[in-house]
């Protein structure tokens, strides 16, 4: 019985709710901040590893394979890419306010070596590996420092990418 | 037992607030500098162990991206403790003792400036009776200081003197955050922050990182002209409930010091990680240090307190003084939990 209930009924307190929360002034860091400022202008920034030349997207501070800093070199990427894997979602999620079912996709942006997870606006029966897609952006006046500037991906009229071009990223 | 030594140590400056860099970006140059100092690359480390806290980062599994600073390809053998890096060093030392590794990279990093540190620290209290009250860490330490004062175990002047000593020593430490010439009278004239603690009784809030390389036997001799050999290392934990502990002494430090063999020979240098002046005095007593020991030549935690790295840095600060010949025998201390709940003691020797 909570303190307020206990007072009314003159009964012992048996339950005490003590909600705890912590607030953070989160800093994305230098590399992610650069990425977010660029996406506010409609640009997609990745970074190239100086050891093996792979392009990581979004940009980050250091190469997770080689542990070397990326420095200030940024690589601007196309908003077109290839679907390397996909999944059809039939259960609701609190964070994704899309009507069910919908398609989540792993997109390999042209010029990138890491994949981007997003949603695809297409018929369920059409989605397939190798499908060429492009980002659909919010209206420019709504752009902010957020990946939510990209609403979703949609198929484009290009021949499928060859399996060899994305097999490493499945 | 295998002979294991500290052969490399780097640290970032302790700063009140890193405005731009995230935790990993603070860590990256520290690891890079350690590679340059030791001439080792990431593939030379048989084992990697880190200490950090998701509660400071404000996100779960935040430590995983710490490996970006190391480079985890080909796959590495690594582990993590949600504790100060000094405990990560202990795990690495055990790994080397068991013969699974000859070299190890250990690092700790934290960016407490992102949150409200005294309130974040409340989450390490017992979850049933203490944590729901959400007492901040300075108030909890203040209760301990009040007990020590009322029991006649120490005086406010003793506490202020600890701050004066550490800040004066820190003048020679380019990485220290709080340094300079102060007097006991000056500090006693400060208003209370949380009675009986003044601001100068409390370690600063610091963002920062540090890293150490351990190596065994001949490998250590290859890597250093005068390795800092770990001749004793122990950590002991006291009960969680503050009400059943003697807060006027640090029993766990006493036991750890005995097991690590602190009193077997003279101690030239001691580096203590106590975040409050009264706690520093309690630890100094628990270690049984004599007047001949130079305490906190770097300034200790009271001069720079990068949480999750501050204890590891104490071991590193001792090691650098052994490498240089300034000390033959040193003791480093790290702490975890409220009111010195858990303590680690590490004895380092040059011979």
Protein described:
The complex is a heterodimer of chains A (170) and B (351). Chain A is mainly beta. Helices cover 10% and strands 26% of the residues of chain A. Chain A has helices at 3-9, 30-39; strands at residues 44-48, 55-56, 75-77, 80-89, 102-109, 116-120, 132-137, 150-155. Chain A has a five-stranded antiparallel sheet with strand order 6-5-4-7-8, with no helix packed on it. A three-stranded antiparallel sheet of chain A has the order 2-1-3. Chain A is extended and about 75 Å long. Chain B is α/β, with parallel strands linked by helices. Chain B is 32% helix and 20% strand. Chain B has helices at residues 23-38, 54-57, 85-97, 117-120, 137-150, 156-169, 184-188, 217-223, 251-260, 277-287, 310-323; strands spanning 4-11, 47-51, 78-81, 103-110, 192-194, 197-198, 208-216, 228-237, 269-271, 294-295, 329-336, 342-349. In chain B, the strands form two sheets. Chain B has a ten-stranded mixed sheet with strand order 3-2-4-7-1-8-12-11-9-10, with helices on both faces. A two-stranded antiparallel ribbon of chain B has the order 5-6. In chain B, helix 6 packs across helix 10 (277-287) and helix 9 runs parallel beside helix 10 (277-287). Chain B is globular, with a radius of gyration of 19 Å. The model of chain B has no long low-confidence stretch (mean pLDDT 96). The interface between A and B is medium-sized, with 25 and 35 residues.
Using the CA coordinates, give the radius of gyration of chain B.
Answer: 19 Å
The fraction of residues assigned to DSSP E strands of chain B is 15-25%
Please work out how many helical segments of chain A DSSP would assign: 2
| Sequence stretches where pLDDT stays below 50 over 5 or more residues of chain A | none
CATH topology of the largest domain in chain A: OB fold (Dihydrolipoamide Acetyltransferase, E2P)
Characterize the biggest β-sheet of chain B.
10 strands, mixed
